[in-house]
Amino acid sequence: MSSLKNKIISGLAWSSMAKLIAQLFSWVSTFVVIRYLEPTDYAIVGLAFAFIGFFYVLSEFGLADALIQQQDTTEKNCDQVFTSTLLLNTVIFIFFIAASNLIADFYQNIALNQVLIFVAANLLLSSFIVIPETLMNKEMLFKKRALIETLASAFNTLVTLGLALVGFGYWSILIGQAVNMLIRVILFNTLGYSRYKITTDFTEFGGLFNFGAYTFASRAIWAFYNKLDVLIIGRVFGSQLLGIYTVSLQLASMPLDKISGTINQVAFSAFSQNSVNNENEQHFLFSLRLLSVTLFPVFIGIAVIAPSLVPLLIGDKWLESVIIIQILSLIMPLKLISSFVNTFIASKGDAKFNLKMSLLYLGFITIGITIGSYGDIIDTVIGLVACYTLCFFLVSYLSMKKIKYSFGVFIACLRGPIICALLMWFFVCILSSQIPMTLIPVFNILIMMALGVLSYTVLSLAFARTHVNDVMALFTQTKNLN
Q1: CA nearest to 130, candidates 85, 87, 76
Q2: Is the residue at 225 inside a domain?
Q3: How far, in Å, CA of 476 to CA of 481, rounded?
Q4: CA dist., res. 378 & res. 433, Å (int)
């Protein structure tokens, strides 16, 4: 087995295992916290994270990816990136001190004033993570990184849950995130490279800056169109419906949020180290098939069980979120696959192309959300999903053309799992209606999940045999690595 594939599999294995352990705490906490909080609480959190998420991308300026993509990184480069990041974060923090009141007035939510300043302060802390985290990714030290993320997530979960139980409301989530950041700063600098310092020497910084500038612009646009729905819904439909939408989005994208970062970190680091190697195409297609065969059944499965799952996990007051979760689940696999393709192209050093594709997504999504917002919130979500799906296939075609891969082969990687997942949805709905359902809701969900796994497995053997073989090969290779 090739060295690159070893690194990819080992990195995914360690990172995924750590994520799974952390999620045993995090998911339980999330569901309990949602039960204790109100939709208006999540409206505040959703808006705060929408703004700060966009500026978090700005704060790094794509320089971390530039360091990873760079073949030989020096101490001088690290000092330059740290200084730039700290300066940008300071400017952003000052901006929020000045603008938070205006933003709160715009959304007619006075609580946003203090919340935005508090969350922006986390950006200053994040400056002290950039270098050690980036170098761990570059050197593919995923075991060590996984330990850090697991511990930070555990502290976050405990703090958030504890504060929610004693009535801290939305502050429980915000303080939990701040604790997460503080723990990560301590551990990354204890276990990783910490000899970076402020510098005034920016000679030979041009290469990093040029690559980072395109990456920054692409990610800034990506962050904007990914938060555009929250920003528009918050203004048009008010805090109550924004809170419902925020929770729906959180639940629908929960698996996506937990694995997308892992996959992109591993993929970018691995492909960057082999950016001129022809074997990358085979690894790209192998990874794409693995993503497709696992993502589509997971998210279609969420759509299937949402009507039973929502009242069980978070209570009847969130029943309005069911249909939104079902609609949003349809594009979650496409989002992760799009992000993976974007990462692959960036690893080849072509950040400019990704910038153009991000602009396409921004245009399509803006049109979809704007048209949908003339109706109700369901119309808005449908408009978002429809336009994102159209843009996904257009961008995928252009991306395959750019890297000189066959678009037909790309579609073949997706076609089988999509067909199997949709048929799974149909069969589960039919079969579950014929089976006497127990009065205990959790058993009903387990029956539906068992039917889904069984039907998808059988369908995959018939329509996605290559994908099944890839999964078996992955298990075999992971076992051999251990």
Answers
A1: 85
A2: no
A3: 9
A4: 26
